Amino acid sequence: MLQKNRPCFVVVQLLFATLLAPLLLVAGPVEYPPLSVDMEAVQLSRQVYYVKGVPGIPSENEGFISNAGFIVGRDGVVVFDALGTPSLAWRLLQIIRQVTDKPVLKVVVSHYHADHIYGLQVFREAGAEIVAPKGAFEYIDSTAAAERLQERRDSLSPWVNEHTRLIRPDRIIEQDTSIDLGDMVLQLRYLGAAHSDGDLSMLVEPDGVLFFGDLLFEGRLPFVGDADSRRWLSILEDMQSMQVAALVPGHGPVARHPSELIKQTRDYLVYLRKVMGVAVEEMTEFAEAYEAADWSRYQQLPAFQAANRRNAYQVYLSMEQESMGRE
Ligand SMILES: [Zn+2]
Known about the structure:
Blueprint: H1 2-27, E1 42-45, E2 48-51, E3 68-72, E4 77-80, H2 86-99, E5 104-108, H3 114-117, H4 120-125, E6 129-133, H5 136-140, H6 143-155, E7 171-173, E8 177-180, E9 185-192, E10 199-205, E11 209-211, H7 229-239, E12 246-248, H8 258-281, H9 286-292, H10 304-326
Parallel strand pairs: 4-5, 5-6, 6-7, 11-12
Antiparallel strand pairs: 1-2, 2-3, 3-4, 8-9, 9-10, 10-11
The structure holds zinc ion.
C-alpha cells in the first residue's frame, strides 16, 4: 500500500518544491501583501550589497523610495535600514536568503523616518537586534509618528495596514561605536540631530563603503522638514575631504565620487538658509518670503511639490530660533 502511494507522494512533493514553495517564499505572511515593484541587490564589494529605491514621494512605487543595504560577515548579516513597508522588508529578507543562509544579527537604522523603519517588524521577527540613534524613542512616542502611520495606512494601502507597527529599538547609539563581525568591522558614527531627531552613518571597513542615510539625497529634493539645517551643513562640510570607495545615500544611486553628491545636497541647504535667513533678519512673513524666492533651480526635481514649502518653513522657524539664541 505504502509502496503504491509513493509515486503520487513524490509528485506532490515535486509540485510543492517547484510551484508552491516559491510562491509561499515570495508572498510571505498575509500581513505582508505581495509587491509588483522590482528589487534587486547590487553588490558593492565582496561582502556589501544594497537595494535602491526609486526616488519619489512616499506613496509612489509601492513605497520603495529609499535604499537599504546588507553586509555579510563571518558571523552573520547586518542590515542597514529596513525600507518603507513590511512587504518591502520581507522581499529584502528573501534577497538576503538568496545570498547567504547566515543569521541576520542586527538592523542598524540610520534614523527614524517612516520610509526607513516600517519594515523593522520583519527583521525583529527574524531575531535581529534593532540598533538606532538617540532620538528614535522621541520619534516613536510622538503624535507626529502616530499620525504618519495613520496617513501611510491610507496612502500605502495595502502594504502599510493594521498589522504594521512601530518597532522600538533594542539598543540606542549616542556615541561612535563599532560592530565586529569576525572578519570585518562596521564603524557606526552618531551624527546627532541633523536631518532628523537623530542620525547615524555606518562605514564598512576595510571595503570603504559608507552608508549615510538621509544626510544625502540623489535624484529628488531632500526632505528638510524635521531638520537642524545648521548641524546638517556642518557635517557635510566635514565630509568633503573624506575618501571612500562608495557612498550609499538614503535615496538614489550609490556614488563612487561622493563630492558631487555632497555638493548637491549642500547647495540646496545653503540656498534655503540664505533665502530664509534674509527673511528672518528682515522680519518678513514666511509666506511672503516663500512666494518671492526663486525656486526655479529645484522645481523640476521629484518631490519638489511635496517637500519644498515644508523644508523652507522648517528652515525659517529654526533660523528664527537661532537668531533668538544670538540675542
Ligand atoms: Zn529621512
